[in-house]
TrEMBL record:
Reactions catalysed according to its record: a triacylglycerol + H2O = a diacylglycerol + a fatty acid + H(+)
Main EC class the enzyme belongs to: hydrolase
Name of the protein this chain belongs to: triacylglycerol lipase
Family the entry assigns: Belongs to the AB hydrolase superfamily. Lipase family.
Pfam family, one: PLAT
PANTHER family: LIPASE, LIPOPROTEIN LIPASE-LIKE
Residues holding Ca(2+): 210, 215
Species: Paramormyrops kingsleyae
Length: 505
């Protein structure tokens, strides 16, 4: 039930992407239905033997397989220079059309070695099985997982390595492979990271049939492409770890061609993996690589009950482990089960952004039914500016109400010194409101070109957890101005009593 509510919210959130939404309907009507029909017939087809190979890659040669560790062959450990005292990573790829490793594998290996130079980074090669039709490959993930579990059990017995030092990183189908490995291994694995775990055939499945928090002492998951219909999407929508991160809501990623991805899916089905689809899905891997390479600039994510609340900036709290670094250095919320964390990102590496909550109180003498102006904000900080940031208005702005917004900046602007708020009219406005607005131009006492006034803006910075109040710079400015400047005022941050419930969530 919880999951369903979450999906509904996601769809509502995205409702304003009208053309894209229409496309999704097409998808649900055609491709997904066909896909579902395919399942029973394909289930019968099985590939015979399932075997995985374990290639210990070298820091100097992250792209190539030069040495395989063979289960049951202790000599192979020596030949590959396996270091029994350091951390061991198993990188597990997903479904493949080409039957070749994708480019990210070498990049992830290199990033792991950059962060943990003495580690053993083992690439699990199950390409021959992963190359089958998706449904066959998905069905075989359990056997591949068992295969890996046998390998891990043997390694533990032979080298006495501590499973606490073992970290499985699985992408797409590989995330579920990691889950099955964790489920079948004799002792518990330290950590599994699921990078956009595959959705089809796994969404809504019982915890033993997919990656779940039972599979390791700690399971962290990044969701980057969970748009879809009928519960079917490329990546899982439901939380499947102890901590589940939904960068940019998990639904689509900046810099990717979402439209292209959805068109492709609508036309050729959910497994028509083209560059646009890959961009969204594979973003999970690059976010993780980013967290390895840019430790000091790791993205911060915040616990939030729903993406909608996060979009309103209501969840930028770090109290009681409510915020955490995303990716390799994840912390904080480790005890919690299925904590859902949200963050925004840039379109490219380093992905980190800086989050701000703006609470703006709009006051008005007139009773208007509410307006939806275009509001843009510029933040001026000690280290730079972030100009023309759009405020997402989810509900109409009516008199005497406080609205909360989420704003992000791509760079660290340092201490916030001034905020400029621009109010622009929209063609959508009703005639009656336009008339009201025009009439309110003349008295000269309005500040926003309408009867609306803003005197204060309360700001909370997510990354620094600082709270500030900004007051209108020149409250006496005569005439009408569409751009207002706000500077820090003496008063400390206070919560509007009506909004208290919102923050507590
Ligand atoms: C094995 O790893 C440890 C750190 O975990 C390091 O101190 C040691 O030098 C490594 N041994 C070899 C042979 O590289
Ligand atoms: C605004 O509307 C409410 C009821 O909707 C009414 O009670 C109030 O008197 C109105 N105020 C003004 C200033 O028109
Ligand atoms: C908003 O509050 C002000 C002062 O508290 C009051 O004069 C005004 O009528 C209120 N406006 C509405 C629409 O209720
Ligand atoms: C709306 O904006 C345009 C240009 O920004 C301006 O010319 C026009 O007068 C505005 N209309 C009203 C009613 O404020």
């Amino acid at each position: 039930m919880k999951t369903r509510g979450y999906q509904v919210i996601l769809l509502v959130l995205c409702a304003h992407f009208i053309s894209v939404t229409a496309l999704e309907e097409e998808i649900s009507d055609s491709a997904f239905d066909n896909f579902l029909e395919l399942i029973p017939s394909l289930r019968k087809e099985r590939s015979g033997s399932v075997s995985a190979r374990f290639s210990l890659r070298k820091p100097s040669d992250p792209d190539d397989d030069v040495c395989y560790i063979v289960t049951g062959d202790p000599e192979s450990l020596k030949e590959c220079d396996f270091n029994t005292t350091s951390k061991t990573f198993l990188v597990i790829h997903g479904w493949t059309v080409s039957g070749l490793f994708e480019g990210w594998v070498g990049r992830l290996v290199a990033a792991l070695y950059e962060r943990e130079p003495s580690a053993n980074v083992i690439v699990v090669d199950w390409l021959s099985t992963a190359q089958n039709h998706y449904i066959v490959a998905a069905h075989n993930t359990k056997m591949v997982g068992q295969n890996i579990a046998n390998f891990i059990n043997w390694m533990e017995k032979t080298t006495h390595l501590s499973l606490d030092h073992l970290h499985l990183i699985g992408y797409s189908l590989g995330a579920h492979v990691a889950g099955f490995a964790g489920n079948h291994v004799s002792n518990k694995i330290g950590r599994i990271t699921g990078l956009d775990p595959a959705g089809p055939d796994f969404e809504g499945a019982h915890a033993h049939q997919r990656l779940s928090p039972d599979d390791a002492h700690f399971v962290d998951v990044l969701h980057t492409f969970n748009r879809g219909s009928l519960g079917l999407s490329i990546g899982t929508q439901q939380p499947v770890g102890h901590v589940d991160f939904y960068p940019n809501g998990g639904s689509f990623q900046p810099g990717c061609n979402l439209r292209g991805a959805l068109e492709k899916i609508a036309k050729f089905g959910i497994f028509a993996i083209n560059d646009a689809v890959k961009c969204e899905h594979e973003r999970s891997v690059h976010l993780f690589i980013d967290s390895l390479l840019h430790k000091q600039e790791a993205s911060q994510a915040y616990f939030c009950g729903s993406p909608d609340m996060f979009e309103r900036g209501a969840c930028l709290s770090c109290r009681k482990s409510r915020c955490s670094t995303m990716g390799y250095d994840v912390g904080g919320a480790r005890q919690a089960r299925s904590a859902t964390m949200f963050t925004k990102t840039r379109a490219s590496m380093p992905f980190r952004v800086y989050h701000y909550q703006l609470k703006i109180h709009f006051s008005s003498n007139l009773n208007c039914s509410g307006v939806e102006p275009t509001l843009t904000v510029s933040l001026h900080g000690a280290n730079g500016d972030a100009k023309d940031l759009h405020l997402n208005i989810n509900e109409k702005i009516a008199g005497n109400n406080t609205h909360s917004f989420l704003l992000v900046t791509e760079k660290d602007i340092g201490e916030l010194l001034m905020i400029k708020l621009k109010w622009e009219n929209r063609s959508k406005w009703t005639t009656s409101f336009m008339l009201k607005m025009v009439s309110s131009w003349w008295p000269g006492d309005s500040t926003l070109g309408s009867d609306m006034e803003v005197h204060k803006i309360r700001v909370k910075a997510g990354e620094t957890q600082k709270r500030m109040v900004f007051c209108l710079k020149n409250p006496e400015t005569p005439g009408v101005s569409q751009e207002l400047s706000f500077v820090k005022c003496k008063e400390s941050w206070k919560f509007h009593s009506k909004r208290r419930g919102l923050r507590r969530q």
